[in-house]
């Protein structure tokens, strides 16, 4: 996410968000070792998978970003039993505004750092900064170029799956008969020279079908832009004493997504990034965790209360989970 986002198409008032049922968490997981766990969990539960959720790496040549990303991966390697890295998007900084040549340089840099730093499994979610050329004014593109938009990132990362070629998909993680269903969504929608947050109708129908066919296991959902988050309120009110939520910060179609989750109580946990802040919101049986940023303030130090970090996510056989933000000690 850019500091203020690209989109300014309409606003949502604080009162409307409160009416929608925002539950501000009792406590935020901010420091190393602080755990956000689901209530319950029996003594016999066993861990199905440990995921390192890494988001908003914003890799670039400047500000020692490659060294910072490498340090993040080194710290993850020091953790026990990380089975999978799930990258929550904004892998590079910034493809949306750049020429094809510059975008390819950024992706090559990412691939080099990843190849030197991590040999295990990686699953990706695309962020707004991973999309090539949507800001036509700055990128000097027409939109007709091969690879324009999300395709360059999808091809580079080798993402395969649902239409359009892997931008959203699902998979199962199963150990000894216990499992979790994991869904990766694409919440970055185009508008002139920028983006807004939400699902298009085709993806929403795919999500509806995927949930209806996968009710055996509890479900975790990963998106770049939050489906629902309290972090959108962490800003000063305007002259009318309103705290506004711009459509680039949270899914504008949360209402229909919420209804879909109510119809599918196997949905337990939704993870996101984008805001470079940390929160936990529990609403209607779903826990929403916005999990900070590996780059914090875009490699310039802490962003408000968020320092450089990643999240360890443990998914258990009884449908419970733990979500723990870990600072890896980077000094900008």
Summarize the structure.
The protein is of the alpha/beta class and 332 residues long. Helices cover 21% and strands 23% of the residues.
Cα(first) to Cα(last) distance is: 19 Å
Spatial order of strands in the largest sheet? 1-14-13-2-3-4
CATH superfamily: Metallo-dependent phosphatases
Radius of gyration over all CA atoms, rounded = 19 Å
* Share of helical residues: 10-25%
**How much strand?**
15-25%
Give the helix tally. Answer: 7
The rough form would be described as: globular
Low-confidence stretches are 2-34
CATH fold description? Purple Acid Phosphatase, chain A, domain 2
CATH class: Alpha Beta
Task: Give the tags.
disordered N terminus; 6-stranded mixed sheet; alpha/beta; 23% strand; 7 helices; 332 residues; Purple Acid Phosphatase, chain A, domain 2
Describe the fold and architecture.
By secondary structure, this protein is α/β, with parallel strands linked by helices. It has a single domain, classed as 4-Layer Sandwich (Purple Acid Phosphatase, chain A, domain 2). It has helices spanning 14-19, 65-77, 100-117, 136-139, 151-157, 201-213, 254-262; strands at 35-37, 47-54, 84-87, 122-124, 169-175, 178-184, 188-191, 194-197, 219-222, 267-272, 278-283, 286-291, 309-316, 321-327. Strands 1-14-13-2-3-4 form a six-stranded mixed beta sheet, with no helix packed on it. Strand 3 (84-87), helix 3 and strand 4 form a beta-alpha-beta unit. Helix 2 (65-77) packs parallel to helix 3 (100-117). The radius of gyration is 19 Å and the shape is globular.
